[in-house]
Write a structure and sequence with these properties.
Structural class: alpha/beta
CATH class of the largest domain: Alpha Beta
Helix content: 40-55%
Radius of gyration: 18 Å
CATH superfamily of the largest domain: Response regulator
Number of domains: 2
Largest sheet: 5 strands, parallel
Strand order of the largest sheet: 2-1-3-4-5
Amino acid sequence: MSKRIALVEDDQALRENYIAALSKQGYEVQPYANRSSAEQAFSERLPDLAIIDIGLEDEIDGGFAVCQQLRSLSKTLPIIFFTARDNDYDTICGLRMGADDYLTKDISLPHLLARIAALFRRTELLDRPQTQTDLIKTGDLLMDSKRMTVSWKGQGIELTVTEFWMLHAVAKFSGHVKSRQQLMDESKMVVDDTTITSHIKRIRKKFMQVDQNFDCVETVYGMGYRWKSI
């Protein structure tokens, strides 16, 4: 059964190009030209993955609203922002909204397809039979990679798909420094340094919302990140 990808893009030529490219890869594409049509469709049925432009017709931040709606309906549905807006402010805003990835439209089609495939690979891990190796317990952290759940001191932490696997890559080797490349390899994603930094900051913030003294995700400057053993 083919995966359903929602494409929320107001530029007709771009929309048609990406419909053709994604369909050629075997995906079922559901296109939307504006926020209202996308939100109406999502309230009735969710896609398997969403690709969203930020500016939609006369709404310069319409895509952010679509992302927020999707994230309220599903905590784990993969969401990619795909936009011409290439600046740190929009990237950070997009990730704060709960997006799993933020891509600019100057990337190559193979690069986009690789990101989509990586997100699908990670969500498909949910269908595997659970084993003891799916569980990570280190100090007050408990992670279950089968259910993609995280708790800290008994309180649940809601992470996106990308945030979960980045944390998983660090926490399963407590005390070991993980380079940015290793984070990408182990969490099966391809992102730039700015995006990794934004995800790490977001992960820390979510933990600090339940424990203001949380400081276990440590930046080792010039090397990467590690889960600090207590």
